[in-house]
């Protein structure tokens, strides 16, 4: 039997700080020159000293002290902790959703969303096909009955 992961935070404030620290660690850092002025390339695009790191569920889990992504997702802690975790997961989901609009990042973002967040699928939603077929059959029967009876 696998032991459940125990997170490293002791209270809600510490959990919030660990989550915020994780998100800050993923932010890009713009390069600066010796005078502290931001550096830009010849096209005016900021030069990054540290590139942006992708936001991931596993990264968040490790930053919060869980042993795995699944341990974080299965965590059943206090309601106040779950609110922070849910909001943090939503931030990661929003990041990945934004990548759907980046050229060349679509497939990876689609896979990530479909496999980590409920409500996302890489298959077309076909839930209504049976309903529509049944409705068509009923309407055809009604039409036939009306034609015969009229």
List the keywords.
150 residues, mainly alpha, Topoisomerase I, Chain A, domain 4, two-stranded antiparallel sheet, 6 helices, elongated
Word description of this protein:
The chain is mainly alpha-helical and 150 residues long. The protein has one domain (12-125): Topoisomerase I, Chain A, domain 4 (Orthogonal Bundle), CATH 1.10.132. Helix content is 54%, strand content 3%. It has six helices and two strands, in the order αββααααα. It has helices at 12-25, 57-64, 69-74, 79-99, 106-116, 129-149, and strands spanning 29-30, 48-50. Helix 1 (12-25) runs parallel beside helix 4. The model has no long low-confidence stretch (mean pLDDT 85).
CATH class: Mainly Alpha
Strand content: under 5%
Give the strand order of the largest sheet, numbering strands 1, 2, ... along the chain. Answer: 1-2
- Kindly state the percentage of residues in helix: 40-55%
Number of helices: 6
Number of domains in the coordinates? 1
In short:
This protein has about 150 residues and is mainly alpha-helical. It contains 6 helices and 2 strands; from the N terminus they run αββααααα.
Task: Furnish the topology, listing elements before pairings.
Layout: H1 12-25, E1 29-30, E2 48-50, H2 57-64, H3 69-74, H4 79-99, H5 106-116, H6 129-149
Antiparallel strand pairs: 1-2
Helix pairs in contact: 1-2, 1-4, 4-5
């Amino acid at each position: 039997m696998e032991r459940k992961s125990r997170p490293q935070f002791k209270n809600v404030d510490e959990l919030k700080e660990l989550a915020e620290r994780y998100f800050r660690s993923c932010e890009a850092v713009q390069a600066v020159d010796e005078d502290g002025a931001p550096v830009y390339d010849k096209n005016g695009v900021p030069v990054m000293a540290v590139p942006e790191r992708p936001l991931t569920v596993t990264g968040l889990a490790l930053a919060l002290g869980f042993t795995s992504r699944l341990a974080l997702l299965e965590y059943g802690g206090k309601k106040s902790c779950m609110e922070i975790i849910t909001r943090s997961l939503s931030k990661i989901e929003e990041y990945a959703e934004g990548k759907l609009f980046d050229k060349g990042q679509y497939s990876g973002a689609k896979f990530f969303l479909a496999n980590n967040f409920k409500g996302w699928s890489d298959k077309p939603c076909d839930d209504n096909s049976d309903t529509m077929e049944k409705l068509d059959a009923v309407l055809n029967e009604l039409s036939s009955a009306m034609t015969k009876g009229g």
